[in-house]
Amino acid sequence: MIDLYTTGAPNGRKITIFCEEAELPYRVRLVDLYEGAHRQPEFLAINPNGRIPAIRDPDGPGGPLILWESGAILQYLAEKTGRFLPQSGPARWEVLQWLYFQVSHAPYWGQAHVFRLFTPEPMPFAIERYTREAHRLYRVIDDQLAGRDWIAGGALSVADMALFPWVEYHRWQGVALEDFPAVLGWFRRMAERPAVARGRANPWGVEAFGPSARGAAVGAKVAERLADPAFGARPAPDTVPATGVTGWIGGGAPPDSKGDTG
Ligand SMILES: N[C@@H](CCC(=O)N[C@@H](CS)C(=O)NCC(=O)O)C(=O)O
User: Residue 40 sits in which domain range?
Assistant: First the structure.
């Protein structure tokens, strides 16, 4: 049975959702980030990068396999089970393209979480930059999902499973899903799946913060921020001023621009 080193966090939920969908037996080995378990030598021996998720597959190719990085784990499990990643053809590359898109852009959403919810003092530049980028990414996904049930390859895939746990945090990112109707429809399709429901709740869901006192403190902080009317008044994509360096880097140069770095 596969050991999954994880906690209640979006990159870990990618893998619980996969295992539930693929009916692949797995066992959660809790690495509670709020307790600093990911910085302990026992876990660093598994993932020297000190991040979840990681897996240990006793039946790996040529012997037991330890693997970390959520995208690599999803691809490995998809190939191991023959599920949720086409084996060849353009659909395979489309799914991998969107999988790589997700894993390489998720940190923007992560930074939106940090700067919108967790800095001791508000940092407007960072809030603007990452809120703007969060919206831009939802626009890209919304355009792709328009007229499609799933993000890539014409069927549910590892790319959907990578995206879903991050879109679950849209409120943290200052995004209202109503502004992105194709994403909203897709999000509901995903959420209705019993396997997704099981995976997104293991070991705990987006509204929970685990058994530790620090987790409870983070949960209280999040609840306070989300209840703040100023937090809810997100900047909509076209009302965030695209000026100077912030506009150029965060929002992309306007089409008639020669590159305004002012
Ligand atoms: N690129 C990695 C990112 C993993 C990651 O950042 N995981 C977060 C939880 S979602 C984590 O372990 N954070 C611990 C920390 O920031 O110290 C992946 O996709 O697996």
Answer: 2-81
